[in-house]
Amino acid sequence: MELTQLEYFITVAKLQHMTKAAKALNLTQPALSHAISKLEEELGLPLFDRGGRNIRLNRYGVQFAKRVEGALRSIEGGIQEIREWSDPDTGLISISYLNILGVDLVPNLVQEYMQEHPKVRFELFQGNLGDLDEHFELGSSDLMITSRESPVMKHEWLTIQKVPLYIVVPARHPFARQSSLSLTKLSGEPFVGLKKNCGLKATITARFENTGFQLASTYDAEDLVTVAGFIRAGLGVSVLPQTPGLMLEGLAWIPIAEEGWEWEIGLKWRKDRYLPAAAKAFIDCMEQQQVHPV
């Protein structure tokens, strides 16, 4: 059974006349008659009572027509929905992002974009790095806002923000009033680290490896907010970005003396996967209006 057969059937059912229906469908009458007969053969019963060129739906045809009309309306609605999704001005932009970025960066990006594209809709998924990677790789989101990772051949990357990293200590710590501090000074200090499911983990680990300085974590927290809380409680020191959500009372933020200590945040997408026009338009906008470092 084919979709065209069903469309032919509904046209004939509405016009109750084979010749008129054939003309409306731009078909020959024999071709239309053959299509309807084939449909009836597949169903195993007649749908029309025939009297020459005039035909009338029988009780089977009436019941079937109700179902077919509903199905065709559903298909038409699906087609319209897909067209809207694929339109860069009315489409859906699906983005997954790290928990900490939901405090400030992502809401600002969405708000600014919707000011210029008010009919676009966003589908947002927030989580830790492990959840986001799985969500993204399964194709449940088209774009991902995350920390920069080591290059993956099938991924594209666009930097949208570079955030300076700071040494963070309790306000009563002896280092608290330093104007800047070398990481080597943290040797022997209890250090609050991050578990692998936090997006900043890879960045901090790579930076420490480049300095040749080894730092053993006393605690490994699930997220950045927990790290800030541990530091405020006097349980250790750490390295964090100075972003909203982490600026707790009782913390001292000290610039790092060594260069290159930044958290690079960007937009990631897969080049081997179809991207809706709305997602492409969002990427283009980010390229033209990149967020400046804070």
Question: What's this model, at a glance?
Answer:
With 294 residues, this protein is an alpha/beta fold.
What does this structure look like?
The protein is of the alpha/beta class and 294 residues long. The chain has three domains: 3-86, Arc Repressor Mutant, subunit A (Orthogonal Bundle), CATH 1.10.10.10; 92-159 and 265-288, D-Maltodextrin-Binding Protein, domain 2; 160-263, 3-Layer(aba) Sandwich (D-Maltodextrin-Binding Protein, domain 2). It is built from nine helices and eleven strands. It has helices at residues 3-15, 18-25, 29-43, 59-86, 105-116, 129-137, 201-211, 224-232, 277-288, and strands spanning 48-51, 54-57, 92-98, 121-127, 143-147, 155-170, 191-194, 217-221, 238-241, 251-255, 262-270. The strands form three sheets. Strands 3, 4, 5, 6, 9, 10 and 11 form a seven-stranded mixed β-sheet that branches. Strands 1-2 form a two-stranded antiparallel sheet. A two-stranded parallel ribbon has the order 7-8. α7 (201-211) links the parallel β7 and β8. α1 packs across α2, α1 packs across α3 (29-43) and α2 (18-25) crosses α3. It comes from Paenibacillus graminis. Residues 1-58 form the HTH lysR-type domain. Pfam families: HTH_1 (PF00126), LysR_substrate (PF03466).
